[in-house]
Amino acid sequence: MITRLLSHDLPRNRWLSALLIAIVLGLALAPFLFPGSKALSVAAKMLVFIVLVASYDLLLGYTGIVSFAHTMFFGIGAYGVAIASTLMGPGWTAVAVGLLVALLLSLLLSLLIGLFSLRVKAIFYAMITLAVASAFQTLASQLSDITGGEDGLSFKNPEWLSPAFELFDAPVLGVAVDGKVLSYYLLFCAATVLFLLLLRIVNSPFGRVLQAIRENDFRAEAIGYRTVVYRTLSNVLSALFACAAGAMLALWLRYTGPDTTLSFEIMIDILLIVVIGGMGTMYGAVIGAVLFVLAQNYLQDLLKLGATAFEGVPVLGAVLTPDRWLLWLGVLFVLSVYHFPSGIVGRLRALRLRH
Amino acid sequence: MSSPAIPKAQFDWKPLALLAGVMVLGLPMIGSPSTWVTLTVAGLAMGLIVFIIASGLTLVFGLMDVLNFGHGVFIAAGAFVATSVMGGMGAWVEADNLLQNLTVIFLAMLAAMAVAGALGLAFERMIVRPVYGQHLKQILITMGGMIVGEEIIKVIWGPQQQALPLPTALRGSFVFGDAAIEKYRLLAVVVGLLVFALLLWVLNRTKVGLLVRAGVQDREMVESLGYRIKRLFVGVFAAGSALAGLGGVMWGLYQQSVTPQIGAQVNVLIFIVIIIGGLGSTLGCFVGALLVGLLANYSGYLAPKVALFSNIGLMVAILLWRPQGLYPVKS
Prior knowledge:
- The complex is a heterodimer.
- Chain A is an all-alpha fold.
- Chain A has helices at residues 2-5, 14-28, 30-33, 37-62, 70-88, 92-117, 122-142, 144-147, 179-202, 205-215, 217-223, 227-253, 258-261, 264-277, 283-309, 314-319, 325-339, 343-354; strands at 153-154, 255-256.
- Chain A has a single domain (12-354), classed as ABC transporter involved in vitamin B12 uptake, BtuC, CATH 1.10.3470.
- Chain A contains 18 helices and two strands.
- Chain A has a two-stranded antiparallel sheet.
- The mean pLDDT of chain A is 86.
- By secondary structure, chain B is mainly alpha-helical.
- Chain B has a domain at 44-260.
- Chain B contains 14 helices and four strands.
- Chain B has helices at residues 14-30, 33-64, 71-88, 90-94, 98-128, 135-157, 183-205, 207-217, 219-224, 229-255, 262-277, 282-302, 304-307, 310-321; strands at 162-163, 173-176, 179-182, 257-258.
- In chain B, the strands form two sheets. A two-stranded antiparallel sheet of chain B has the order 1-4.
- The model of chain B has no long low-confidence stretch (mean pLDDT 87).
């Protein structure tokens, strides 16, 4: 049953399995295990990033394409829900319409970019997507009548998901089941379904062709697969999943703005997570996203301790300030690309092989 | 009987004609000739600065098939070194004396080029060398290098935006009839043309340049003739980084402020330029940079909203015309 759900792509390592089970349980019970709004926000962000990064892994890890436009599709999803909810008033129809339009737009855009530029070298595609994404970001901040410009859009969720809504009169296990908790579980279900779907895709014959293209596109073409078609399909699929992740984020935050969805910083976060977690493994997205979001929210506290300890020392003090946490992740990223390109997951799996 | 001479390769004049066409077309659209002169000088200044930054990147790509996504770090490093130099020599910056002012700028440029060049050497050794020939890893690793570099700049100079004021004598503008031309832009044009001339001279009239051009065309052949192209490449990488540092100083003075994110912002622009020019082509990079600069300024005057997308529109249009860029290097 579980094997079927995981598309016969098991973690294949005891430690990895244990870690994954802990993460799934932790996320499933987060509202009860870690009460408090910050902890729940952190958990929700993990869910969104798991889907977002897993969808990027389909592109980078499985097909071997570097795109810098992934946040664009993420943003389209988030803006879709936000704009529809603002224009049509809160409600499920607004969410559905917004998501649908966003998915369609993502499909069209990714198809266009893919057909236009996937025929050429990887480097070329990376540069084109970088340019397109920055143009889209400018566009979003310029159309301030629709998108709210730099300020973004705050909107109301359907009634069930609004914080004021109480499902039960009495608290369950000491936790009031309000709209926030319900939204969290909506996100959890969505993330689970989307992730399992992605796992299904990469383990299907289609996914095998993608990996063949990644390993040797010339040979894949020679065997008779039209690599352009497969690359474009992979591009479109990953854009659609990113779009869904964006909608999840919008539902959780009840806000969409350029900084939370479209900014280049988020693109860099995605790259860091996918590489450190493990390219081409899918589970790497889960582990990477959880570790990254934890680090983002709690490592800074740890660094603060280090910074106070080395207050007087000139270089160490400056390097250990919580604001410089990205420096350490960047170093880790560079080392990962060199020394363990399959990331944490690949490392754990290699452990077993050596025995 | 003499064999017929090998026909010389025809010089492709169409991109240059396009450049001239854009300038000529700009005149009736803008209307007033004096505004046109101002905008054209501004566009040329911007284009030349962008060319200085991008020339190293495109040569490095042409030579070794390495695209450095971390090129922006050298820009930022150069600009920040300039803030330190000019901050340290504040009296000379404030002095109302053209000679002192120019000296300060010259010293700042020299320091920026030295630092960026040295940084380039280190970058090549530590970041790029282990991943030759692996495009995917190259993109990722140079991106990582850029993240780390940007953070290190924040450690040294702080994360805030820093002012980079122009020296006294270079503020304000010359007025020719109705046309006002900012003094600094004129300086930028002069420096840019000097660099371009120097680059053309080195590439076309020296042995090193001959080897670089030959390497761009066919690396294996140059290697088989006994030249160590890797060593040549390291030199080009360092020189390209130094040029990026110089460009960073000029860009910073152009904006009169510097942020650690300057590298990432300019990166997008220079990528568009080298795509337009044809990856690896110096002349293409030059024409592309000028086109971008001119269009940005013309459209900024005619339709400010459109100006934000002029670069990407230009790129799409050029690629529809010539999918490999203006001057394709390899067939």
